[in-house]
Amino acid sequence: MSASKRRRVLDIIATDSTFERADFRGREVWLGKCLHCNAHLMVDLTGEPISRATIEHIIPRVHGGTDSLENLGLACARCNQGKGTRHDPRYHKDARAQQLVARLQERRRERWRDPDAPEPD
């Protein structure tokens, strides 16, 4: 993964309250949850995914979604690929795809953490 993508992953983690520092086999990591299914995701402190964490564009880029932190979350590869395959191509024409995006936007807002807030102990 490129340095810019690792930085973006760390920026997402900084704004997602499900992610906390944790010890994993004697190594400090970020441990959080998939935006879709709440499966555990693990990311190295450098931003390199240890589990199959991927960057999720809640509103797909092909439909005007941006790289703003409010539109990004971390998702397991299975969920992200499933959304990309089944829902993203039909986003503007499919009510179910729009409902999924609305649920993900709400979940992202619920998880939002001020990136400038001090890290929890």
Secondary structure elements and pairings:
Layout: H1 3-14, E1 20-24, E2 27-33, E3 40-44, E4 53-57, E5 72-76, H2 77-86, H3 95-111
Antiparallel strand pairs: 1-2, 2-3, 4-5
Fold and architecture overview:
There is one protein chain. Strands 1-2-3 form a three-stranded antiparallel β-sheet, with no helix packed on it. A two-stranded antiparallel ribbon has the order 4-5. It has one domain. The model has no long low-confidence stretch (mean pLDDT 92). A hairpin with a 6-residue loop joins strand 2 and strand 3. It is 32% helix and 22% strand. The termini are far apart. The chain is globular. The chain has 121 residues and is an alpha+beta fold. It contains three helices and five strands. 27% of the residues are buried.
Gross morphology is globular
Q: Say how many strands there are.
A: 5
Low-confidence stretches: none
Class from helix and strand fractions: alpha+beta
Q: In angstroms, what separates the terminal alpha carbons? A: 29 Å
Total number of domains? 1
Largest sheet: number of strands, sense, barrel closure: 3 strands, antiparallel
What is the percent of helical residues?
25-40%
Integer-rounded radius of gyration: 14 Å
Q: What series of H and E elements makes up the topology?
A: HEEEEEHH
Proportion of beta-strand residues = 15-25%
Average pLDDT score: 92
Strand numbers in spatial order across the main sheet: 1-2-3
Number of helices: 3
